[in-house]
Amino acid sequence: MSATDLPPFAPEWLALREDADARARSREPVGLIGDRGRVIADLGCGSGSLGRWLAPRLPSPQHWVLFDRDPRLLAMAEHGVPGATTETRRCDLASLRATDLAGCTLVAASALLDVLTRPAVDALAGAVVDAGCPALFSLTVAGRVELDPADPLDGAVARAFDAHQRRAGLLGPDAVEAARAAFAERGVATRTFPSPWRLGPDEGELLAAWLRGWVGAAQEQDPALPAAAYLERRSAQCSRGALSAVVHHTDLWADPAGGP
Ligand SMILES: C[S@@+](CC[C@H](N)C(=O)[O-])C[C@H]1O[C@@H](n2cnc3c(N)ncnc32)[C@H](O)[C@@H]1O
Hints:
By secondary structure, the chain is of the alpha/beta class. Helices cover about 40% and strands about 20% of the residues. It is built from 9 helices and 8 strands.
């Protein structure tokens, strides 16, 4: 499987995680945007979750240019950014150019970098720098998960999951460092901000779905793992409200015009 053959992201999954994403996003980079949040390119917009969170935090009027390769998600995002005008661009972000960002004053993306390859992240950084826009890449997986209570198999599942995320040349937990390096090569410093999901009994449905996906991917990567018994154990704790998880993410800010 190549990176371009990855299955589409289910709108149901994006909807289930939207509230946890909103709580996790760092507020700090929003303060760095200043008056540059007028024409926003949302790369890998999905159903428009980032716009629903960010648009009310930026001055009006705003225009959002929504980029994604999935036409179904683009159709949802088109009418999903409150108080802003929108336009959609169906494209493969791996071949994004600065000209695609012409007229944009801010590049934003959420939960995107880790599902891209190193060349795609490099091209993206090049396009952002050539366009001269500041960029906020939020909610990139950090490759660190803390489960409470701990289980002896946690580490093995986490390692197998991270290896699965790196399949087909995808960056997974290496994405933030790759993006920082890509900007640094172009003379642009970056800042990072923690944006962890904190999932407990109040987020039981998301925690259960995340667990199934996390363990399922680990098992696909390493069929020798006793994953079924582990998932059964963890799911039982989850349904009793006796499990919590911190899934670490990172928000990344890059500003070619003025440094961080
Ligand atoms: C994990 S989802 C995040 C969606 C949304 N930003 C959010 O936070 O809910 C990743 C999104 O990036 C899009 N995507 C991934 N790789 C892409 C590529 N190479 N070109 C265009 N879109 C891509 C997917 O279709 C999906 O909508």
